Amino acid sequence: MLIHKDASEITTYDCSFCSYKAKRKRDLIGHMLIHKDASEITTYGCSFCSFKTKRKMYVTKHMLIHKDASEITTYDCSFCSYKAKRKSCLTKHMLIHKDASEITTYDCSFCSYKAKRKLNLTNHMLIHKDASEITTYDCSFCSYKAKQKICLTRHMLIHKDASEITTYDCSFCSYKAKRKRYLTKHMIIHKDASEITTYDCSFCSYKAKRKSFCSYKAKRKRYLTKHMIIHKDASEITTYDCSFCSYKAKRKRCLTKHMLIHKDASEITTYDCSFCSYKAKRKSCLTKHMLIHKDASKLQLMTAVLFLKAKRKLNLTNQC
Fold first, then answer.
1. H helix intervals, the chain
2. Beta strands 207-208 and 199-200: pairing type?
3. The C2H2-type domain covers which part of the protein (predicted)?
4. How far apart are CA 214 and CA 111, in angstroms?
5. Hey, is 9 helix, strand or coil?
6. 3-state secondary structure at position 218
7. How far apart are CA 220 and CA 225, in angstroms?
């Protein structure tokens, strides 16, 4: 969809050392390696063979070739035969089993942009701000600027001497990690099978290293309730059925939204804008729309509040 966007609408990640620009953050991270001295580049080595890589995600992926098929955790789709090695892939796949009306979208109140993830909308909202309104986190050693504090924190590592960076070292091999949880996970490969506690299924030969279904954690009950559906058999899932057609939904609000298509236009309650001809079926949509009629100073305040709320929610989601 980038080909349909104006250049000013596309977020770019700029290199602080040269004129390189990237549309994806991971591309910039890969590029930044050319500005580092060989001694500064952290490499992740495989503990079973000579494989080395500059990115941790590649070594994690590589390690799968050393595992027996029975040891690899897979995330299975409850609707079809799809299996994934990463939870994020299953989450993305599950969208194909949803009706368009069931997919939550985050809509921009200034233009027609829609996003499936709140983070993407938060990033997009920056294009509607004046440069002077955007808070930046500036590096005290070079000209690097970041829109997010976490990006500056990561960047600051390039200015540190290797001896200053805290690492968690494996006592059995040369593995080093910047986070304790990564080391804890790594230590399992040094244990004998008899030392690893497994939780066995009483119905089949399935064994797990964790008692729960998976490692998912949530700070809100509704997020956990929604997540638990992927562990249920199709027959166990409560559905809300339309009394006019074959439509079924897993959430009541999706059915409520769907029922509007069976109503006559005169029966549908609309929320009308008092300044223009805009109409909405949901009050929240009208509230968002009203921002375009606000005084610029009030609009700045409202945008800042919405941005902070989105940022807070994102931080909570990342901690889940």
1. 25-32, 56-62, 87-93, 118-125, 149-155, 180-186, 221-228, 252-258, 283-289, 296-319
2. antiparallel
3. 75-102, 106-133, 168-195, 271-298
4. 39
5. helix
6. coil
7. 9
d(CA 255, CA 295): 37
- Strands, E assignment, 121-261: 137-138, 145-146, 168-169, 176-177, 199-200, 207-208, 240-241, 248-249
Residues 6+ apart with CB under 8 A from 242: 248, 255, 258, 259, 262
Residue 242 token pair: 């339309």
Could you tell me the sign of the dihedral formed by the alpha carbons of 159, 162, 164, 166, in that order?
Answer: positive
Q: Which amino acid is at 70?
A: S
What's residue 202's pLDDT? 63
Query: How far apart are alpha carbons 285 and 105 in whole angstroms?
Result: 12
Could you report the per-residue pLDDT of 137-183, keeping only the tens digit for each?
888 888 888 877 888 887 887 787 767 777 888 888 888 887 787 88
Q: What is the mean pLDDT of the chain?
A: 76
3-state SS assignment for residue 168: strand
Assess contact for 291 and 109: CB atoms under 8 A.
yes
Angle at 155 between CA 149 and CA 157, to 5 degrees: 120
Query: Which helix H or strand E contains 106, and what residues bound it?
Result: strand 106-107
Which position has the token pair 């409202």? 302
The distance of Cα 160 from the centroid of its chain, to the nearest Å, equals 29
Which tokens belong to 265? 């236009």
Strand partners of residue 52 = 45
Distance CA 102, CA 247 (A): 11
